[in-house]
Write a structure and sequence with these properties.
Chain lengths: ~300, ~300
C-alpha cells in the first residue's frame, strides 16, 4: 500500500432509482489516484445510494466535493420520495479514520469538505458527530429531524444555524450533515428462542441507554423464517467496547431465560482489528501487537 | 494496494555478523516498485540473516535473484561458522502465496527463481516443500543434511542430484533450497505447570507425528524465568489446522494433568485470516466472508 494515511468515507445520496444518475454520482470515485471505491448500493424503497470508499485525505476531499457537485446538480429533493428520512441531495457524509490517522484528522477533513461544498455549491452544512460544534448537533437524527421539508423553517432557528454556508435551505439540494465518527460495526447475535419479548429484554440489558455497555445500541428482532430471534447490535466504538464483550454479555443475560446463543453475524464491513482483538481475547494472547499481522505490515 | 497478486518470500542468508555485507545483501529489496521489505534480522550466534519481504511475483523474482547474486559474491561458506545448520551462502528461499495467488503460482515462481540463479551464478538448486520433485526432497532438514561440508559428496549421489544447476557444490556458495510453502505460524501455549514432562506429554498428544493434529509440530519448553512451561507449536498450515483447534486441544489434553492454560503467544508475523477465523469460531459467526474485512477490501 503506497498510501500513508487512510480515511474511510460513506456518503449517502438521495437517489436510489435512476441508475444513470447513480453512475454519474459515483463516477468521481473511479480511477482516481489516492481514492478507492469499495462498494456502492442503491435501495429503491429508500430511494437512497450508499457509497463506501477509502482514500488519502487530500484525494478523498477532492473526489467527495466533486461527487457532491454532481448530486446537487442532478437531485431535486422537491421531487424525492422514499422510506428513508433525508434532508438533502447529499444527506450525510461521515469520515472515519482507518490507518495512521487520528479522529482529529478526520474531523479536520470533514470541516475542509464542509467549507468547500458550502462555498462551491451554496449548500448549508451541519457538522455532526465528532465534528459537531454543540452537543445537540452530535446526533444525526436530531440534525435531520423535520427532513428536507421542515428544514426550510428549522434552519432559521438560532440553534440550527448551519456551520457553513447560507442560513437558508438550498432550493433543490436541501442541507447536508458532514462529520467524523468511529467505524460502526453492525453485529447481530442469534438466540435459541422465538420469543421477541426475551430478545428485547436482553437487548435492553446490554445496551448503553438502559445501563449496558457504553458503545452498544441494540434491539430485539424476530427472524421469522428461522423461527428464532436476535439481538441486533450497532457497535459504535469497537475500540472501547469490544465485540467479544457484547457477545459474552448477551450470553450472560440470555442465561436467565434459559436461552442460548445459536450464532452471530456481522453485516457489511468490519475493520480487521475488531476481529483480531476478539481472537486475542479468546486465545489469551500475551504481548500481541497489530504490527504482527502480515497485512497490517503490508499496508504500512 | 495497487498490487494484484502478493507473494511473501523469506530468504535465509548465511551472514549474521558483518553489518556492511548484510546491508549489501538487503539493498536489492529496497526502493523497488512491486517489492516491500517488511523485516530483516541477523543473529550473530546463528551467523544468519532472515529477510521477510512481500511483492508481486515478477518484481519479487528479480529482486531475489539480484540479492542471491550479492550473497554468492560476498559469502564464502568455507569461512562460515554458526550454530544454525546451513548448506549455502543463500541457505533457503521459501515463497508463500498471500493474496490472489495459488500455491501453484508460488511453485511456478520458485522454479523460475531456481532456474535463474542456477544459470546466472552456477548454483546447484534443490526444489523443496511443495516444489519438491520427489517425496524425499520435501523436508528442508533432509535436503540440508550434511550441510555445506557434506554436500561436496552428497550432491553426487543419484538421489541428490540438484533440480537446477551443476551436480557439483559451488566452491564458496554451496547449494540452495528453493520452494513454495504455506505460511508458518509460530504459536506457543503457556501452561500453569513448571513440570516440563507434562508440557512434553501435551505437546506429543497434539502434534501430528504422535497422533495429533495434521498441521501441528510441537514440543515442550521450560520458561524458567516465569516458572512455567509451554507447548511451543509450529502451525504448518493454519488454513487446514486452525489456530483455535490447536489451542482448544492443548486445553483438553492439559486437563488430564490438572493443568490450565495461562495464555498464549504468537511469535513474529501472522496472516490476518488465521486470527479472523479464530474470532469467527468463538463468536459462532454465520455466513462470514473475508470480503467483509475492510482491510481485505482495501488491499484487493
Amino acid at each position: 500500500m503506497s498510501w500513508n494515511k487512510i480515511i474511510e468515507c460513506v456518503p449517502n445520496f438521495s437517489e436510489g432509482r435512476d441508475l444513470e444518475k447513480i453512475d454519474q454520482i459515483v463516477a468521481p470515485f473511479r480511477g482516481k489516484v489516492g481514492v478507492k471505491l469499495l462498494d456502492y448500493s442503491n435501495d429503491e424503497d429508500h430511494n437512497r445510494l450508499v457509497v463506501t470508499l477509502v482514500g488519502e485525505p487530500e484525494a478523498l476531499c477532492e473526489a467527495v466535493v466533486e461527487a457532491v457537485g454532481v448530486a446537487v446538480r442532478l437531485i431535486d429533493l422537491n421531487q424525492h420520495t422514499g422510506q428513508h428520512p433525508r434532508m438533502g441531495a447529499v444527506d450525510v457524509i461521515p469520515f472515519i479514520p482507518i490507518k495512521n490517522t487520528s479522529m482529529e484528522e478526520a474531523i479536520e477533513l470533514s470541516k475542509k469538505v464542509a467549507a468547500k461544498v458550502a462555498e462551491l455549491f451554496n449548500l448549508p452544512v451541519f457538522l455532526y458527530e465528532k465534528s459537531a460544534t454543540a452537543p445537540h448537533r452530535e446526533n444525526l437524527a436530531s440534525v435531520r429531524k423535520g427532513e428536507f421539508e421542515g428544514m426550510a423553517e428549522k434552519i432559521k432557528l438560532p440553534e440550527w444555524q448551519p456551520d457553513f454556508g447560507p442560513a437558508e435551505r438550498h432550493p433543490t439540494a436541501g442541507t447536508v450533515a458532514i462529520g467524523a465518527r468511529m467505524p460502526l460495526v453492525a453485529y447481530n447475535v442469534n438466540l435459541s428462542t422465538d420469543n421477541l419479548e426475551i430478545a428485547t429484554k436482553i437487548a435492553k440489558n446490554v445496551r448503553h441507554i438502559n445501563g449496558g455497555l457504553r458503545y452498544v445500541k441494540a434491539m430485539g428482532v424476530e427472524l421469522k423464517e428461522r423461527n428464532i430471534t436476535q439481538v441486533s447490535i450497532n457497535m459504535t466504538d469497537y475500540t472501547r467496547t469490544a465485540l467479544y464483550r457484547a457477545f459474552e454479555l448477551v450470553r450472560i443475560e440470555a442465561r436467565r431465560y434459559g436461552v442460548t446463543i445459536v450464532g452471530s453475524e456481522i453485516i457489511g464491513l468490519v475493520p480487521m482489528e475488531a476481529l483480531i482483538d476478539t481472537a486475542s481475547y479468546y486465545l489469551g494472547l500475551e504481548n500481541f501487537s497489530m504490527q504482527q499481522v502480515l497485512e497490517a505490515r503490508i499496508m504500512e
